[in-house]
């Protein structure tokens, strides 16, 4: 049950010793899409050095256009696994179809993307697994709808759910989405589940990532998800919002500085 009334303590999700929630803070960083062995291993080494606790990387990509890069799929998961072996970082990747679940065996945290937040059959199936699930808020979903989707997973017996705000659709066009930071105090009041903020997808432009990552940290987020690419202008997906490893290092340093006071 996602309702805080039924839990005395905040949920600490423990992924092979890397903890998030209940006072434990983590940065999840990596490329939007896994593009090659060199790319994902290089980015993994960089973000680890900067203090990230998890490596992210998309293998199955929910692209708006069917003609856009769809991800390396099974090969992408293999390459993530190699980067995990190299760095020891647990890996986070998005699932879109439950038939792919066996491929996600090496994936430590299974992401449900914004577009699938209300794919209830997918949520029910994930509820029957023992995978840690990172559930993103849908593009046009309320906080209560997000919590009900978490409930779909938890009702099946899987209590390890991390919630993620990644921006919502509004009339504003200067940002890709509108980052709803007010979700942090609301979720802290309503649920014991960890709350992660993804400023990369919320803002859509790399120059906005640092101030909003800091704001989210100060507001009490349990973690951040930040896209990092070795060569953002040539990224196959989401280059405009991706940080270089150097820019990520700067953001991570700033975040870790304010974190003790958050
Ligand atoms: C992603 O994390 O790469 C992604 C597709 O995110 P979202 O579902 O938030 O758009
Ligand atoms: Mn992306």
From TrEMBL:
Residues 14-256 form the DAHP synthetase I/KDSA domain. GO terms for molecular function: 3-deoxy-7-phosphoheptulonate synthase activity; aldehyde-lyase activity. Its EC number is 2.5.1.54. Keywords: Transferase. GO terms for biological process: aromatic amino acid family biosynthetic process. This is Phospho-2-dehydro-3-deoxyheptonate aldolase.
């Amino acid at each position: 049950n996602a309702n805080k009334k039924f839990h005395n303590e905040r949920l600490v999700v423990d992924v092979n010793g890397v903890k998030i929630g209940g006072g434990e803070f983590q940065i999840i960083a990596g490329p939007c899409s896994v593009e090659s062995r060199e790319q994902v291993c290089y980015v993994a080494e960089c973000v680890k050095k900067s203090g990230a606790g998890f490596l992210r990387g998309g293998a199955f990509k929910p692209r708006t256009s069917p003609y856009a890069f769809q991800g390396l799929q099974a090969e992408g998961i293999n390459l993530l696994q190699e980067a995990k072996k190299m760095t020891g970082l647990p890996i986070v990747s998005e699932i879109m179809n439950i038939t792919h679940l066996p491929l996600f065996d090496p994936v430590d945290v299974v992401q449900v993307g914004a577009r699938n937040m209300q794919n209830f059959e997918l949520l029910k199936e994930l509820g029957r697994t023992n995978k840690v699930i990172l559930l993103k808020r849908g593009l046009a979903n309320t906080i209560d709808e997000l919590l009900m989707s978490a409930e779909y997973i938890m009702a099946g017996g899987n209590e390890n759910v991390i919630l993620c705000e990644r921006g919502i659709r509004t009339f504003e066009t200067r940002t890709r989405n509108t980052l709803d930071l007010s979700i942090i105090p609301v979720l802290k009041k309503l649920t014991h589940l960890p709350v992660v903020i993804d400023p990369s997808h919320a803002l859509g432009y790399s120059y906005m990532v640092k101030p909003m990552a800091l704001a989210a940290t100060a507001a009490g987020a349990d973690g951040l998800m930040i896209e990092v690419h070795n060569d953002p202008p040539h990224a196959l997906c989401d280059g405009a919002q991706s940080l270089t490893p150097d820019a990520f290092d700067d953001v991570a340093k700033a975040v870790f500085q304010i974190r003790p006071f958050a």
